[in-house]
Amino acid sequence: MELILAKNEEIIKKYDYSEKHEKRGLISNDVTSSLIITNKRIINESVSKRNVFRKEIPIESADYVSTAYASNAMSFLAAAALAIIFVLFLIFYFSTENSLLLALSIIAAVAAVVFIIIAILKRGAGVKVEISGRMGEYGLMAVGASSLQSAKRLTKIKIKIDKGTAQNMINELGATILDLKKTK
Q1: Dihedral (C-alpha) 90, 95, 96, 99: value to the nearest 10 degrees?
Q2: Which residues, 6 or more positions from 57, have their beta carbon under 8 angstroms from its beta carbon?
Q3: What is the pTM of this model?
Q4: Residue 108 and residue 115: Cα distance in Å, rounded?
Q5: pLDDT confidence band for 14 (50 / 70 / 90)
Q6: Over the stretch 52-86, which tens digit does the pLDDT of each residue have?
Q7: Could you tell me the maximum CA-CA distance found in the chain, to the nearest angstrom?
């Protein structure tokens, strides 16, 4: 179902931030979630072949924007740092033969392995946007998605976050809304 724009309304930015593929038995459904900024409205839209869900608020109502983006890249960085610490403790152990250094190197190695497993199992990212009015007094719109892969009996769900789009949305959203509000 196509989004109909009002008179003199134009799309300023569109962020297709997540895709969801759900399969229940023989029935599958693909849903694309987007945040659309026009010169008059902010629209959160989820579209599939059979359904369209939209939440809209006027640009003038948006006084407070809170955004968040998270990726599991820190797990890989933490694992790399712990692996380096493991090697350093091991080198110092062989030069001093201090049993405390050996114990610390083993702990660092185990922690590095745990962080690598966490990073592999929790691939992906998450994005969240909250728009409020009157400096956060009341919530107008909450948008969010997180990478997920799940399979239970007959249902399989896979949600993919477009990391680049999500990061752009987080970085540009506040400025875009502010610019649109100042031109009115």
Answers
A1: 30
A2: 41, 42, 131, 140, 141
A3: 0.66
A4: 10
A5: very high
A6: 999 999 998 888 888 887 776 555 666 677 677 77
A7: 78
Structure tokens, 106: 């083993």
What contacts 24+ positions apart, CB below 8 Å, involve 79-85?
Answer: 79/112, 79/113, 79/115, 79/116, 79/119, 80/112, 82/108, 82/109, 82/111, 82/112, 82/115, 83/108, 83/109, 83/112
Q: Rounded to an integer, what distance in angstroms lies between the CA atom of residue 38 and that of residue 6? A: 10
> Which pair of tokens denotes residue 83?
């692996």
> Whole-angstrom Cα distance, residue 130 to residue 35?
12
Chain position carrying tokens 């196509």: 2
Contact 40, 59 (CB under 8 A): yes
| Nearest partner of 67 among 173, 148, 160, 164, judged by Cα | 173
Helix (H, G, I), strand (E, B) or coil at 75: helix
Q: Which two tokens stand for residue 170?
A: 């987080």
pLDDT tens profile 97-114: 777 767 777 777 777 777
Neighbouring CB atoms inside 10 A of 1's CB total 8
Q: Are strands 125-133 and 64-71 parallel, antiparallel or unpaired?
A: antiparallel
